[in-house]
Amino acid sequence: MLNRRRLLAMGGGVATAGGALLWWGQSAAGAETGASAAPVADPHAHHGGGAEPTPAEPTAGTGAPPPYTAFSERLPVPRVLRPVSSLGDTDVYELPMQHAKAEFFPGRPAPVLTFGGQFIGPTIRAKAGRRVKVRYVNRLDRAATVHLHGGHVPPGSDGFPMDLIEPGASRVFDYPNRQQGATLWYHDHTCAKEAEHVYRGLAGFYLIEGRDEAALRLPRGAYDVPIMIRDARFDENGGMIFEPSPLPTTLHVNGRQKPYFPVDARKYRFRVLNATLHRNIELYLGGLDMVQIASDGGLLPEPLPRKKILIVPGERVEIVVDFSAQAIGSKLVLTDVCDGADEPVMRFDVARRAFDPSRVPGRLRELPALPAATVERDVKLSFSPSGEEFAINDKTFDPNRVDTRIVEGTTEIWRVTNTDPAETPFGPVNHTFHMHLVPFRVLDRNGEPPLPGENGLKDTVLVRPGETVRVQATFSGYKGRYLYHCHLQEHSDIGMMAQMEIV
Ligand SMILES: [Cu+2]
């Protein structure tokens, strides 16, 4: 039997005390259908300590998933959500959270949680400087909330994990879009349930077009394609299994396993998001250049041709791929080669010649000025002192505690250190540090230069065991409470989350 520590090490979602343990006892089927009114986790339970319950044996081994033929289904592109009204400088959207079915295996509909009835949710296309308001309507059987990852938003619209939208209720969130163009995503952020909710489907893209972006003439329209990479384990009926397990996961892209995507022989802009719970992915396109043009916080200063791209949970990478030199009929497989993996992600099928007015300029943009920092802080990511939860600076999340007070407008350097082990039976204990409200710049890693592609604005960054990553941010725009946390949602669900208050 796996002990908890080992499960934690591989990113498992089981906690020893209270709420998080509730996931464990649920049968996958019961949790998916919601038929057995899912117990509402006491949001404070995982801070409580107390007697240590004995975890049940995992219910893995429910049978092999149905057979699946790679590259047999076309990549779906999530639909673009239309506003219900547009007045002045504001577009208003309505987006229900609802139960639905998804077919990860053709002909085998499986229950999922969705925004708008589809796995994955519809894409909201916003413009910098133009306000968006979204009315989220909760038609689920459970409370939930929505965080706009990468959004510069007022505190009441940030989706605080305890500030939930109850079943039957709705709430309007305000997204002013006074920020740079970038690939954002919205997803559930419910305390102690985030990992499960996001895994089961509560996520979608939110794209902000920058003010001067159109002038760059990057690929647009049908040639600008969001790609959400997720992973899952499936039962014999093709349903999702959510439980900590050392068993390998299967990747799926925009809700399909190993799909194919017919492309014209020209340039495409792909907005790639790693929305897995804890799986690092290293993209490889058979040696073809993937020209990175953007990271979490929007365009890089200049394009960066890459053969392999590491992308960790929560991160976004935008690439331009030029298929114009490929023979019609050729098929290019995008593969995950992280840590010796060799798993197809999807396949591009070059279908026909096409006119291509797009280009990738040698300069993409000037990054905003980086004011000198006046405050430095240490942020330690590690197992909690008990060794049974995850913590930031040895404290697990407490919604009633402010961990960091920051004077509005201040520029700070945070030294983010991962002190967890590099070697466990399931590999190194990585963390991905994510800050709400503002993007940061990555200054260095253990004093060495940042990784390729980390020279732009970011909001999520890999911190490997033994590593100290220095990031610099200016905390401006709003006052109030915001989170910073590990974006391995199973880690944040069991404590690895903290609060900052901008004052
Ligand atoms: Cu973590």
Automatic annotation (TrEMBL):
CDD domains listed in its UniProt record: CuRO_3_CueO_FtsP
UniProt-annotated stretches for the region Disordered: 34-72
Residues in the signal sequence: none
A Pfam family matched in the record: Cu-oxidase_2
UniProt KW keywords: Metal-binding, Oxidoreductase
Enzyme class name: oxidoreductase
Keyword Protein biosynthesis listed: no
Catalysed transformations (reactions): 4 Cu(+) + O2 + 4 H(+) = 4 Cu(2+) + 2 H2O
Protein name listed in UniProt: Multicopper oxidase CueO
